[in-house]
Amino acid sequence: MTSRLLPHAVLVAALLVFALPIWIAVVGATQESSAIARGEMSLLPNLSGFGVFGDVLMNGATGTGPVWRELLVSAGMALAIALGKIAVSIPSAYAVVFFRFPFRMTAFWLIFLTLMLPVEVRLIPTFQVMSSLNLINSFTGLTVPLIASATATLLFRQTFATLPDELVEAARMDGAGPLRFLFDVVIPMSAANIAALFVILFVYGWNQYLWPLLVATDPHLDTVVIGIVKMIGLDRETEWNKVMATAVLALVPPVAVVLLMQRWFVKGLTEGDK
Amino acid sequence: MAGLTLQDLRKSFGGTEILKGVDLDLPDGEMLVIVGASGCGKSTLLRLVAGLETPTAGRILIDGRDVTGVDPSARDIAMVFQNYALYPHMSVFDNMAYGLKIRGLSRADIRAKVDEASALLGLDALLARKPRQLSGGQRQRVAMGRAIVRDPKLFLFDEPLSNLDAKLRVQMRGEIRRLQRRLGVTSLYVTHDQVEAMTLGDRLLVMHDGVPVQFATPMDVFERPADTYVAGFIGSPAMNLLPGILERDGSAVTVGGVTIPLAGRRFTGAGGHPVTVGIRPEHVVVDPAGAEWPVELVEPLGSETLVHAARPGGATLTVKLAGGGTDVGGMVPVLFPPEHLHVFDRNTGRRMEPANAA
Amino acid sequence: MERRTLFPGRALPALLILPQLVLTAVFFLWPAAQAIWLSTRREDAFGTSTAFVGLENFADLFADPLYVAAAGRTALFCTAVTALAMGAALLLAVFADAEIRGRAFYRTMLIWPYAVAPAMAAVLWVLMFQPQIGLVGAWLNRVGIRWDYRLDGTEAMALVIGAAAWKQVSYNFIFFLAGLQAVPKTIIEAARIDGARGFHRFRTIVLPLLMPTVYFLLVVDVVYAAFDTFATVYALTQGGPGQSTQTLVLKVYLDGIVNADVGSSSAQSVVLMAGVILLSSLQFRFLGRKSAT
Ligand SMILES: Nc1ncnc2c1ncn2[C@@H]1O[C@H](COP(=O)(O)OP(=O)(O)OP(=O)(O)O)[C@@H](O)[C@H]1O
Ligand SMILES: [Mg+2]
Q1: Residues B249 and B130 in one domain
Q2: Which CATH class is domain C72-247?
Q3: What stretch or stretches form a coiled coil here (chain A) (predicted)?
Q4: CA neighbor of C6 nearest in space, from B143, B200, A173, A97
Q5: Structural domain that includes position B165
Q6: Which of B212, B232, B252 is the last residue of a domain?
């Protein structure tokens, strides 16, 4: 019997380790900030306290703007990065896979190199480039520089390389040129991969921290992740119930995207990244 | 008028010559089957004709028009692939219609053509399905339909049946043949299945190492193989090839220690010239008067029996006997009827023709 | 694998790849080159001009006890985070791969944390471990175990390691589970017939087949711990108390952006760059796949 119970025990314990903080956040959000600060938090939600979600959405907390705007910035950033990366990397992967042109591999390696250059290793010069291009404190600066990265290109390159040659040949005999083939055959056939990548990139965009910290000091461009760290950073006057409410709001969109598209996302992640 | 003409067609891949000069004149409306061992360049030849590869040298004419440098889509051809290459995300209808849409045909025209082709192939009920919802045979038919709707001057088939099971293969073989006859479209058909080759083709092109070794009707190839390669390749079980010596003035051969007079045939070759003597297993006669061969293995196939014999020197012989439970002892005495002997030059492998050929 | 069939033309592919190349050049290659360039220069005492100083910035860096300490701390941090995240994930994946009831539910509940931002992991861990308000943190103090990571360096280090590993378990779990599911059932059955069971079967049959995944995750996790945890650590402790949780990325940021010491920060960037390149080439060596040809 123990061998039957052990897996359940371990898995339930793990599940709690991950879910408990979320529960605390939901419950804590509904309680009095002062009670939380005294360490007197109940483990059950105060049913009359759910108004705090509306409150932070509309008014934010001390030191931050309204959370709806932060959520909007986060969503805009995540969508722009996810869609932008897909829009940039599909054509480049397509060019590398389906054509031969001078310096093809050089171009590919240059793109590939970006994998080894996370923003942390080029912090100051990137900041300087951003300011000389006047991109500091702009939505463009927040998103466009993150649109170029090799992950998506590599994934699509791999997907495209597995399309059977005969399919290309059939399309050529049908009279489809390269662009037609791209839009009529390659993109529809890669729909599942595109969906998977969208999840990965959306989460990536939503979760950015260092980049917005670096290029967007204007509070109007605060993402919800930046906003919430600002809230707890104050420490003295922290309104803990608002922090918790904001944490829940910040987690809902990316978690929802992952859960809704779980099957594609897991497949895309494990097949693509390796 | 020639449906397809190839002139000294050559193809190299990075220094290795894969096709070493193919010349061909295929009459309009005929079906040419290209056979040969794996890797001999059959697909390459087909892909050159399709325009999917560029020849290193030579010319390709379809219906009298030089298409050597022309884009595949402008050659007025259609191709059926081994793995069908159907667009997996499109319905059967859209698969067939795609090429027509690109050509800018009107909706009504497209519908009419697809309907006609699907009626011909019995696909009417399947038009809305996706390829993954079809059986292998049905996919094969869709691939054919996609080729037919285009009304091409030339059909190209690259081993279209090799992904089907044996029974379906026989059925589809018949269908392809009927369809091709009915449409009267010049066709190239690549296979390495010799039954397909024999039954489908008006003409056969046997390839060996990038060289066409024989271009003739199937019966011609079977009855008068151009060299030992073709002799061994066409016919099942394969023709027996035994070392022999031309005797006297070329009117007899010695094979397996027995000298056989060649009933009226006389080869222009000095006595003592080394030859390879070929005889098909079904032509070997078991006769108590014959030379004895030690039996190695007997394979009863039901309606016939294969007897494999070998001599200590390494010479092997296969004999095909009618009937099932033929009892053969440890030795099988055989005679080689002279009228069924094929004689090849042992040095060149080429078929030797009698000087006094009738 | 190269394709057999290609499209002709040069202008179109150039056009297709151009946007990505431009973005790459402007925001990645140029700044990276700049980092290398800046790492060889130093401002004069008045901050008015810079001069070429060769490798002096690097020499200073490695002579700086604070930097060396940060490097050691980072090594400890990366090792601990990687070991914890991988160990826990492997254990969970093995259990979640077994034929048990509620498998799909368990999987889903272990996959969603993938969506948690490194910075959010910090926030959630504050809610758990903050000495006054944190569920666990306040409880510890109530039962008489003194706990305050804002004052105690060791506690702070344990906390950031925990939070960073916590966030990465889910990613590893997804890969381990996929790896386990890719082990052919026939191999397991053959091992059962051979009499291998339980942990022995796992160690001798399953684990060797899982090694590519292990190597892959090893590199990914080390890179994650070295770079992506910036947000986790910065939001939790900002490197403190003192320098006790200051990892190399935090130092690049603090020295470069907060203290505006461009030369030193750039030299640190270049050292990190070398680190990533080293790790990536290790990955190629071990995996031999995902190759770019
Ligand atoms: N794109 C290519 N690049 C290099 N070599 C090639 C290419 N295409 C074919 N070859 C080579 O040319 C030779 C002939 O290939 P081909 O595909 O024409 O053979 P085949 O007769 O169709 O064989 P099979 O019966 O196996 O299909 C092979 O040795 C093959 O390796
Ligand atoms: Mg072939």
Answers
A1: no
A2: mainly alpha
A3: none
A4: A97
A5: 4-232
A6: B232
Cβ within 8 Å, pair B50-A169: yes
> What is the best residue among B22, B44, B47, B207 to mutate for testing ligand 1's pocket, by most ligand atoms within 8 Å of CB?
B44
A267 CA: distance to closest CA in chain C (Å): 8
| Partner-chain residue, chosen from B72, B84, B103, that has the shortest CB–CB distance to A172 | B72
The minimum-distance atom of ligand 1 relative to the CA of C4 is 1
Residue type at C281?
A: S
At A89, which amino acid appears? S
**Chain A residue numbers touching B88 (CB-CB < 8 A):** 189
Token readout for B151 is: 């009304």
Distance CA A163, CA C164 (A): 39
Give the residue from B174, B208, B232 where a domain finishes: B232
User: Is B152 contained in some domain?
Assistant: yes
- Strand spans (E) along chain B: 2-13, 16-27, 31-35, 57-62, 65-66, 77-80, 154-158, 186-190, 203-208, 211-216, 240-247, 252-255, 258-261, 274-279, 285-300, 304-310, 316-322, 331-335, 342-345
In a shared domain, residues B248 and B317: yes
Asked if B72's CB is within 8 angstroms of A173's CB, the reply is yes
* pLDDT tens for each residue of C238-283: 887 888 899 998 988 888 878 777 788 888 888 888 888 888 787 7
- Write down which chains contact chain A via at least 3 CB pairs under 8 A: B, C
Extract the tokens encoding C206.
């399953």
Determine the Cα–Cα distance for residues B199 and B219; give it in Å rounded to an integer: 10
Query: In this predicted structure, which of A36-40, B167-171, C105-109, C216-220 has the lowest mean pLDDT?
Result: A36-40
Give the residue with greater pLDDT, A150 vs B201.
Answer: B201
Instruction: Give the number of whichever ligand sits closest to the CA of residue C2.
Output: 1
Give the CA distances from residue C47 to residues A72, C8, C44, C50, in Å, rounded to whole numbers and listed in that order. Answer: 41, 55, 5, 8
Chain C residue with minimal CA distance to A211? Answer: C231
* Domain assignment present for B169: yes
Interface of A with B in 135-174 (CB under 8 A): 164, 166-167, 169-174
Closest chain C residue to A228, measured at CA: C123
Closest by Cα among A257, A266, A255, A261 to A25: A255
